[in-house]
Design a protein that fits this description.
Helix content is 35%, strand content 25%. The protein contains 21 helices and 27 strands. The longest helix has 16 residues, at 581-596.
Length: 597
């Protein structure tokens, strides 16, 4: 009972702590608190509310927010008073403030596995941080800002780096209160915690929070605060697990396009759209195009602008003809059409071939791919099959999705998705199959389930690894059974297909793509006469010309291709006059320069 009273007393002390009115401000002034303190963080400015004696001055500071930026007034004790000075321009952010008492915080015993935490150290790090920000729909920061502020004593940047690949997997920013605004309470705060949605390792967010807390603890800070959206249950669970408690501070923001969802209220139909429909609707709404959700569950919506109305299902619109759609629907027909256009295709036979023909095909190519002639999202596809028995099993599995089954030569390499809109390449991304890493005590099955939960959370429920015969075959091919314990550090591929819907991940390579691959994708799109398509190739490297054509998709997902402007180019195609004049002028000048050159 005594322990409970002591804990309750400590929590009450934390909740009540901080500047609270004129008396606190007077004491703070004597301790060196800066007046009207503002810190530029690149994505916007942190406006420290307790440093403003006059709420009108605080409101005016928020009015000075720059374009495409998100300023935040933090530590606002009397939000109703501040809002009364600009009720049409400002709003109360629906977030909670949490505080970690660094005097009682204890580091965790679990150390990062497969990655490590370090300081941001280069402009390339900054570029990767921006990529993660964009994937999480956060405001980006000019890479030069990170670099020029690397020695800023008020700002601290940490990143998580993959031990094997060197990829940046997550990031967090810290603000030292005393250095930022002369905080007399010697506090600190956490901002911009973001983890790559395709990161293969668990616990990255927790490791980043702990590293920042330990950083500030070592520098004598009394506490670390953060602001989190009220409905971000996953983040709140993490913070409470680490010992954060809620405190009575509020956040005020300015009404702008970035913050629109926070002050206009929920739209039930809009929220029910999947990520592939939502990314297009968001871009259309940003341009002032009228949007109407027709069937949220199916991804159907209607766009109207300038007297023109177009019905869409995700990236499939009325501009795609029924003929083009039927060509993509039948992989056998697709193959014939693109081959006639000079696109390289793999050798193929029918799944109805007899055992002798299948054996001969296997012997010739070593490995084969079995897939239904019709279908999408990787359903019924088996890759890397080496035996006649497994081939026949895969053919039967594929027949569950289509009566016609194809057996193709397996091209060793990576799966490349190219988004072609209006017969121009917009994005190119390597699609990698799901991989698990052993921790020395979890079974393969448990690791796959953990991976599925992370992929599902990162994609709004769109991605998970199926627990089916194909997954079991891939695990068995790696030398393990589903209930075996995977040794620490051991990595195995649990699915040979790289489709997002079966647990795969997407990695942008648009800037590294070989011209021959672009030409093949555009030639395939023109052969089918389809204005929006996802062309899938198997390649050895994005920088090499070697490839074979796999299939064309009439409804490619435009989400998860950050930082490429897939949704922007799609809306450009539907409504050319909605393109801002400055952008149209720049494109005209660019085309003119190319012709003159």
């Amino acid at each position: 009972m005594a322990v409970e009273k002591k804990t309750d007393h400590r929590l009450e002390k934390l909740r009540a702590s901080g500047p609270s009115g004129p008396a606190a401000r007077t004491r703070a002034d004597q301790d060196g608190l800066k007046k009207n303190a503002i810190l530029d963080c690149g994505w916007g400015r942190l406006v420290f509310g307790q440093t403003f004696a006059d709420p009108r001055e605080l409101a005016n500071s928020l009015r000075e927010e720059g374009p495409d930026r998100r300023d935040i007034a933090f530590y606002v004790k009397d939000p109703h008073v501040l809002l009364s000075h600009a009720p049409q321009e400002l709003f109360l952010d629906p977030s909670h403030t949490y505080r970690l008492d660094l005097a009682t915080y204890r580091p965790g015993t679990r150390r990062p596995r497969g990655y490590f935490i370090r300081r941001l150290a280069s402009e390339q790090d900054a570029t990767e941080v921006n990529r993660i920000y964009q994937s999480r729909h956060m405001v980006q920061v000019h890479p030069a800002f990170f670099w020029t502020n690397r020695d800023n004593r008020a700002l601290t940047y940490f990143v998580a780096e993959d031990e094997t690949t060197g990829a940046i997997l997550g990031t967090v920013t810290g603000v030292h209160g005393k250095r930022a605004f002369g905080d007399p309470e010697n506090g600190s705060s956490l901002w911009c915690l973001a983890v790559d949605p395709q990161a293969p390792h668990p616990g990255i967010g927790e490791s980043l929070v702990r590293r920042l807390a330990e950083h500030f603890q070592a520098r004598g800070c009394a506490f670390m605060d953060l602001s989190v959206m009220h409905d971000n249950e996953q983040a709140i669970r993490l913070y409470e697990k680490l010992g954060f408690v809620r405190v009575s501070y509020f956040t005020i923001k300015r009404k702008n396009e970035i913050n629109e969802k926070l002050f206009t209220g929920p739209n039930a139909e809009y929220e029910q759209l999947n990520p592939y429909a939502r990314i297009i609707v968001e871009e259309a709404r940003r341009r002032g195009i009228h949007t109407e959700v027709v069937d949220a569950a199916g991804g159907f919506f209607r766009l109207t602008h300038g007297g023109r109305t177009v019905l869409c299902r995700e990236s499939l619109s009325e501009l795609t003809s029924a003929v083009a759609m039927s060509i993509c629907d039948d992989k056998t027909v697709t193959r014939r059409m693109v081959e006639a256009a000079g696109v390289t295709v793999p050798e193929q036979i029918s799944g109805d071939s007899d055992g002798a023909a299948l054996s001969a095909f296997l012997e010739k190519h070593g490995q084969v791919v079995v897939k239904p002639a019709r279908g999408e999202q990787g359903r019924g596809i088996s890759v890397g099959i080496e035996t006649l028995e497994d081939t026949k099993t895969a053919i039967e599995a594929a027949r569950q999705h289509s009566p016609n089954v194809l057996v193709e030569a397996c091209f060793a390499g990576d799966d490349l998705r190219l988004i072609v809109i209006d017969y121009r390449l917009v994005a190119a991304a390597l699609r990698k199959p799901p991989v698990i890493t052993g921790d020395g005590h979890s079974s393969v099955r448990d690791l796959i389930e953990h991976l599925s939960r992370r992929r599902s959370a990162a994609t709004g429920g769109e991605s998970k690894v199926p627990m089916d015969a194909e997954t079991e075959r891939c695990v068995r091919q790696s030398g393990y059974a589903m209930d075996d314990t995977l040794p620490e550090g051991e990595r195995i591929t649990v699915r040979k297909t790289a489709n997002l819907h079966t647990g795969g991940t997407i990695h942008d390579v648009t800037g590294d793509i070989h011209p021959a691959l672009v030409q093949a994708a555009v030639a395939a799109a023109r052969a089918i006469e389809i204005p929006v398509t996802g062309i899938d190739l198997m390649i050895k490297s994005p920088a090499l010309p070697d490839y074979v054509f796999i299939e064309a998709n009439e409804r490619p997902g435009l989400a998860n291709h950050e930082p490429q402007p897939t949704a922007e180019r799609f809306v450009d195609l539907l409504f050319p006059l909605s393109v801002p004049f400055s952008v149209r002028a720049a494109r005209t000048n660019q085309r003119r320069s190319l012709k003159e050159g």
